[in-house]
Amino acid sequence: MAAAANQGEANGVSVRTHRASLRALALLAPSLAIVVASCGSAARVSSAAPPTVVCGTLLSSSPAGAVVYDIAAPGFNDRQPVTAPTTGGVVIVRVAPGCSAGSTVRLSPADAFRIVRRVRARDGRLVVVVLKPVRSAPAVLTAERDGRTVGTLRLDIAKANL
Fold this sequence. Notes:
Radius of gyration: 31 Å
Helix content: 10-25%
Order of helices and strands: HEEHEEEEEEEEE
């Protein structure tokens, strides 16, 4: 009789408890498999910024993401000067809204920055200029198209950021 009473129990735990635990594990197994598979899959979620591309030209692939000052955008506010470069130690300025018609740029004083990269529109004029600060001096970049000012950007890179 003692043997019959022990058939429903194993070491003080009922067989029902074991069955319930096995059912719960069976329900959780697919979820666990998904979690484990996602940890080792090739497609990973990233907080990195996408590459900076304008008119098909790669300007930056930094995971931190580059700042692009779009002075051709309606309502661009140039009241605050740019005081620090973006990733790579440069200032990236978009001077035309599209890739078909560009702008001409004027930088004053011209020796405060060096243009290290240009993206041209189909008409040969500029869409983007990438500026490298040469010395700490206030400067103004002006973009013009067809005799009209497209936009301006005030630059005042601190000596510590050169």
